[in-house]
Amino acid sequence: MSIFGGLVPLMNPATEISVGEHVKGTLFGGTLDMDTVWATAAAVVVVCLLAIALRRQMTSGVPGRLQAAWEMGIGALTKQVEGSIGPKGQAVIPLAASLFVFIFVCNIFTVVGLGSKYEWLSAPNSDINLPLAMSLFVIILVHMASIRARGPVGYVKHYLTQPFPIFLLPFNLFINLVEEIAKPITLALRLFGNLLSGTLMLSLIAFLGVWKLGAVPIGNVLVLIVNPVWKVFDLAIGGIQAFIFALLTILYFDVAMSTEHGDGHDHDVDLIHSTPEAALST
Amino acid sequence: MLIADSNFLIPNSTLVVELVAFLIVLGVIGKFVLPFLKEKLDERADLIKGELAAADEAKADATAADEDRKAALEEARHQAREIVAQANRTAEQVRTDAQSNGHSEYERILGNAENEVALARQRAVDEAANRMGEIVMDVAERVIGREVDAEAHRDLIDEAVEALRADAAGGAAAGSGVRQ
Fold it and tell me: How many domains does chain B have?
């Protein structure tokens, strides 16, 4: 089955198609996905190197390419935050920027994937742990911001009196709970699903390698053609998913920090029940 | 643990490590990048603002200089017009003076000439009158064949001379009228 004869088992593409399998390790009794931990550490190092490179060349004069890219990204984020949340949303900018940069760098790792069972540098977001960690962290902060903006009483009241009048309180509580529980799950699964499907696609493409027409390894030729095409596509998906995650974070903060009844809640319903594309147009 | 190992949708302890990794990134970007990036952006904004202000100032200076230049040009044009007008007035004055002087000179020369003519005429008339008395007397002596006493016929002679003078004076007046 192997196109490399099984010489290097860990980077041996398409020995079998695995879904969500990781190299396991243990730390303080807990199970760790070591390939994800290693890839995440690599992403952190890349982000730190980017930050150091940026700091070294940072100038108030004519910016270099790296600084210009950062400024453009931060400028777009700031505009988005000020447009939706307003001036009080300044605190969200570092979070949204970190999410975008970190997710984007992590997603770029799909480019070095071969479609093997265990990649040397897997995409960390194709493991549920990273997207879920980030989405839980975001949602906890969103709720903290909501309590801060509305006050404890207003925070509770919001879940009891919206979207229907007070006499439908149990119904209000139920749909709001469902909505709030769904938020971190959808936020995490959207990113995870896109990246996992990307790695699965790489495995499937690598699997083409077994196809031979007589003695002609036509499958290997196809792998060489299709794999780069898919990786370009995957890069675009990685960028878009990073953007969507950061944007939805901003929009969740917007909804949580809006104190006007009705307006904010409409946002909630749209974001939860619509596609990412529809949410982007909100 | 068995469920976590068999289902890739169930998180495990990796979540904590991933959260720590993300917090590190958040710290690096939030504390190490964004404040300095913002600082540099603000500095650049101030720089651009300053340069724009300087450009506005330079533009204002240029406008003021242009206004001064226009004013100086207008002043120069005004002075030039004044000079030309003054020159025209002086020329007119010179022309008028010259005309006036010429006319008076003409009048003076003409007057002198008329006086000389009148004097010459008077002298001619006087001479002619003197000569006429003699001629008349001479002719009368020849006509009547004897000497005529001039003193005895002085009154006649004088009368004839006066008549001649009057005639001459009339002719002179007529000549002067024709000239004018």
Answer: 1
Q: What does the block give as tokens for B130?
A: 């003197």
- How many residues are there in chain A? 282
B125 found inside a domain: yes
Q: Is residue B71 part of a domain?
A: no
For residue B87, which amino acid is it?
Answer: A
Residues of A in contact with B18 (CB under 8 A): 36-37, 40, 124, 127, 129-130, 133-134
Domain ranges of chain A: 2-281
**Can the peptide bond before residue A163 be classed as cis, meaning omega within 30 degrees of 0?**
yes
Closest alpha carbon within chain B to A189: B9
The DSSP code for A166 is G
| pLDDT 10s digits, B51-78 | 999 999 999 999 999 999 999 999 999 9
Ordered alpha helix ranges (H), chain A: 34-57, 65-84, 92-108, 129-161, 169-207, 218-257, 263-273, 276-280
Q: Which residues pair with A27 in a beta bridge?
A: A30
Range of the domain at B139: 109-180
Against a cut of 0.90, is the pTM above it?
A: no
The 10s digit of each residue's pLDDT in A195-230 is 888 888 888 888 877 777 777 778 788 888 888 888
- B140 belongs to a structural domain: yes
